[in-house]
Design a protein that fits this description.
mainly beta; ten-stranded mixed beta sheet; eight-stranded antiparallel beta sheet
Length: 260
């Protein structure tokens, strides 16, 4: 928002980093969710780094993939998982296949109509608060012309653990992450999100007690990606994300930084 009107901007990058610190947290799913499914009483919630990868194919088409680098956090006992998802946002009816997507995980079907790639890892030791983690998503084009995605995290030491490296076997001329006012192929916003929400499967949760710090950065200038910059504008919600949290409030601190 600039002087009361919307200002449209766009940028491309090969790397996003989301820094997360959880100072206190107690969440619980209610008996029902307006947004979807519910597991009443569950104490899990998620912190999600969600970005859009644009693939310009060798055949002249543009494809969109939604990349999710996620922390699942059990607010009752401190169990932590990292999980990645890849979705095909190229059109409303686009699918994924194990024949064209390779990594540590697999592609599976939700309700025989929605296809998603997923891989997950439990982190050790269990988290004690305050808990800090950095989520890192990188993209690029391999020497044989295939788009690749690397999902990583920085948890207990000073180096990034790349827990999943994915290749999409579609001949392409470029692959990068993008933020722009134009929608993806299936009509969803072409944005980058670092959000706190319900854990999975479009579920909601309720914040009984919650204090987190979120900082979102991207690497620039493309394609050298020499520097990290905070994102230039910040909203207090995630538009693409399917999960929801109730009784939570967001305070925007600075460029790319928010507290909940």
């Amino acid at each position: 928002m600039v002087n009361g009107t919307y200002f449209a901007y766009d940028y491309i990058t090969n790397e996003f980093i989301g820094n997360v610190t959880i100072y206190k947290a107690l969440t619980q799913e209610p008996s029902a969710c307006l947004s979807g499914y519910a597991e009443p009483g569950s104490n899990w919630f998620s912190v999600q780094l969600n970005t859009v990868m644009v693939v310009n194919t060798a055949g002249g088409q543009t494809q969109y993939y939604w990349l999710q680098n996620v922390v699942w956090f059990d607010s009752l006992n401190g169990t932590v998982w990292v999980v990645d998802n890849v979705w095909n946002f190229s059109s409303i009816n686009s699918v994924l296949s194990n024949a064209t997507v390779s990594g540590n995980g697999v592609v599976y079907s939700l309700n025989n109509s929605i296809y998603v790639y997923e891989y997950l890892v439990e982190l050790t030791p269990k988290a004690s608060l305050p808990f800090s983690i950095s989520l890192v998503t990188r993209t690029g084009l391999s020497s044989n012309g295939y788009p690749w995605i690397s999902f990583g995290y920085l948890y207990t030491n000073g180096s990034i653990t790349w827990y999943d490296n994915i290749t999409i076997k579609v001949p392409a001329v470029s692959a990068y992450m993008e933020v722009s006012p134009m929608p993806t192929g299936n009509g969803l916003p072409d944005d980058a999100e670092l959000i706190v929400a319900g854990p999975w499967n479009w579920e909601c949760t309720t914040a009984k007690s919650l204090n987190t710090s979120l900082m979102l950065y991207f690497a620039w200038p493309y394609p050298s990606d020499e520097y990290l910059s905070p994102v230039p504008a910040t909203w207090d919600f995630g538009e693409d994300t399917g999960e929801t949290i109730y009784n939570a409030h967001v305070s925007l601190i600075n460029y790319g930084e928010a507290m909940s």
